Amino acid sequence: MSSSRLKILSGNSNRPLAEEICKAIGEPLGEATVTSFPDGESFVKINENIRGQDVFIIQSTCPPTNHHLMELLIMIDAARRASAQRITAVLPFYGYARQDRKDQPRVPITAKLVANLLVAAGATRILTMDLHSQQIQGFFDIPVDHLYASPVFFEHLARRKSTNPLVVCSPDVGGMKMAAAYADTMGAALAFVAKKRKNATTVEAMSIVGDVAGCDVLLVDDITETAGTLTAAAKMLRQHGAVSVSAAVSHCILNDVAVERLKSGLIDELITTNSTPVATQGLPITVLSIAKLLGEAIVRITSNESVTGLFKIKGF
Which pTM does this prediction carry? Predict the structure, then answer.
């Protein structure tokens, strides 16, 4: 699959994923120095010629979010000034995506600001996965290839055996479309939990729509940070007779609060991807690799082929 025009670079947010992507498509990872000055300012130097090449810069904007975002912007600027022909920012996880609208007075739409910054820096294309809301694609005036982690989850879930009926459940109303697509593909029933958020870290589950008694339940969501939504939903599902509760979440950015909640045992298995670094810490977490999915997308973009076939799932 080697292509002399293809060059893959990586920031520091998730270098193991970048190396895995390169291994999957048989391309070397480009040489670049990405470091910080003593005062915290980021410094980037691309250590090889990229003039006229198709450059892909892999960087998840995960914690420390602002630092990794600046690294990405500076790398894009460096590539633009080095005369790269096309610069694709590959964001397996797009930070600030939850700030995608004005839901109260005098707040920013930071997801749009980040889009503006990426374009201003010199990105000519975006490759990302499981955005918090698909409308964010419209924040860009450059092409956006939006992938889904669902094929990776389906491959893992297909190997699980159970005699109980399966119910796919959304932990909130906003995730119903994703849950419906999972249920349709897996031939499962559908349910959702109506919730009320008290604050940024606490969620109060309200009620369940759907029958989960005697069933294995799969919660599906795009991102979890405190695991508040998942554990509140799991607690209510068990109270309504669920035999087991698992969760498939595209992006896991677990803090100390989440670790304590996952230790409660309410969730039997949390299935996620390596879009961001995930420390399992002895918790019931299964991390699936998206390297092959992203690698194939990069190859198709370089050869001007369709990316749609990689993630075409019924209902999406």
Answer: 0.91
Out of 7, 112, 177, 195, the active site residue is 195
195 is catalytic: yes
Confidence of residue 161 (pLDDT cuts 50, 70, 90): confident
* Residue 80 exposed, middle or buried by CB count within 10 Å (0-12, 13-18, 19+): middle
Closest to 139 measured CA to CA, from 98, 171, 183, 109 = 109
Judgement on whether residues 278 and 301 belong to the same structural domain of the protein: no
Do 216 and 297 sit in the same domain of this protein? no
Per DSSP (E only), the strands in the chain are 6-10, 32-36, 42-46, 54-58, 86-91, 125-129, 144-147, 166-170, 189-197, 203-209, 216-224, 244-252, 269-273, 285-288
- Give the mean model confidence (pLDDT) for residues 194-223: 81
Q: Residue 159 sits in which domain range?
A: 150-288
